[in-house]
Amino acid sequence: MKRVVFVTGHCWTSRRKAGFHWLADAFLSQGWEVLFLTTSLSLLSIPRLDHRLKYISFRDLNQLRELQSRLFSYISFTTVHPAHLRVPFFNRLFTPVFQNYADQVNLRSCKDWVQKSHLCIFESTSGLLLMDRIQQINPDAKYIYRVSDDLRFLRSHPVVLEAEERALEKFDLISTPSAAIFSLFQSKSQGLRLDYHAIRKDLFDASCPNPYQGRGTNAVFSGISHFDLDFLEIASQCLPEWNFHIIGPIRGLPKRSNVFAYGEVPFIETIPYIKHADIGLQTRSYVPGVESLNRSLKTIQYTYCRLPIVAPDYLKSDLGHWYTYKPGDASSIVETLTTALNHPRETISTVDILSWDEIVADWCQELGI
């Protein structure tokens, strides 16, 4: 039986399902054994209120666990892990410690599993510092870098950026989810692919009740960070007859009767809110690298459900159902929302949206495994 290792920042048990969860799910559906190796957790995660701590048991740290048939989890927990400390002096001070992150990671109980794997897929996290060590354990496996995010956008510590640069030439395949990220690597590596995020079509195609019954016009946002709070403050005040539904751990939301905050909920429960909405919000505040979010997983989900998408004007897209507003401008925000609402949804094409199974099959064919 073939084995694949995912070196990721995600925990399998997290309520929020990211692209790496769906990729692992696709490998499972195709008969592989899967190890979800979670990195970038340490004592530093506790004062930083890392949301992943809600989903793990401390007795499972640094232990290989079989969660279900053919699915294994290993949660690496160290004293520290590379994290951006916001202050340049502290970043420099901790650089030598962070550079030794790979030596801190205890792989003893999963070493045999990794040694017998056929494929290893790295996410854009500090887990990249484990590349050399894992290749030493298993030099015969194929290696993929799935660049889930631009590390500059995530404000990663410089040692992580350096680890990414060193690792690029060692991957057999590099898969990017957006044109913006693709362009960053185009001159640096071979085996580069543009693979937009995919979708579990069966979940979105299944019938589900409408959670908005009788609520009028409904706009939905689903995400965990960089939300444009100013947009919501203006939109909810200027359009009191609209309802704004925010799914995710977003703090500081305006307290209005037409703003509904759901916090972090299991992925399957978000589907009805997306599927039955009138508009999908990709309303992100500006940070360097935000451009890569024009084809985020959520954007693909909005598109599959044929929702017009509203985003700030610094977030460009060639999608015909993409509408942009000028941040902080009330008239622009209102005009953009009302124009988007009138978009003929039946014209939104979904033919280019792939399933995760199709992406996995393409990778395996290209790598000959």
Note down, in words, how this protein is organized.
Strand 5 (119-123), helix 5 and strand 6 form a beta-alpha-beta unit. With 369 residues, this protein is of the alpha/beta class. The protein is built from 13 helices and 14 strands. It is globular, with a radius of gyration of 21 Å. It has an eight-stranded mixed sheet with strand order 3-4-2-1-5-6-7-8. The protein has two domains: 3-198 and 355-367, Rossmann fold, CATH 3.40.50; 202-347, Rossmann fold. Helix 1 (19-29) packs across helix 13 (356-367). Helix content is 30%, strand content 20%. The longest helix is centred in the first third of the chain and has 12 residues, at 88-99.
Name its key features.
2 domains; Rossmann fold; 13 helices; alpha/beta; six-stranded parallel sheet; 369 residues; eight-stranded mixed sheet
Radius of gyration: 21 Å
Strand arrangement, largest sheet?
Answer: 3-4-2-1-5-6-7-8
Order of helix and strand elements from N to C terminus: EHEEEHHHEHEHEHEHEHEEHEHEEHH
CATH class of the largest domain: Alpha Beta
How many alpha or pi helices? 13
Classify the beta-strand content into a percent band.
Answer: 15-25%
CATH architecture of the largest domain: 3-Layer(aba) Sandwich
Write the layout of secondary structure elements.
Elements (H helix, E strand, L loop, with lengths): L2 E6 L10 H11 L3 E10 L21 E5 L2 E8 L9 H12 L1 H4 L6 H5 L3 E5 L7 H7 L4 E5 L11 H10 L5 E4 L2 H7 L6 E3 L6 H5 L11 E6 L6 H10 L3 E6 L11 E5 L3 H9 L3 E3 L15 H8 L4 E4 L9 E4 L4 H12 L14 H12 L2
Parallel strand pairs: 1-2, 1-5, 2-4, 5-6, 6-7, 7-8, 9-10, 9-12, 10-11, 12-13, 13-14
Antiparallel strand pairs: 3-4
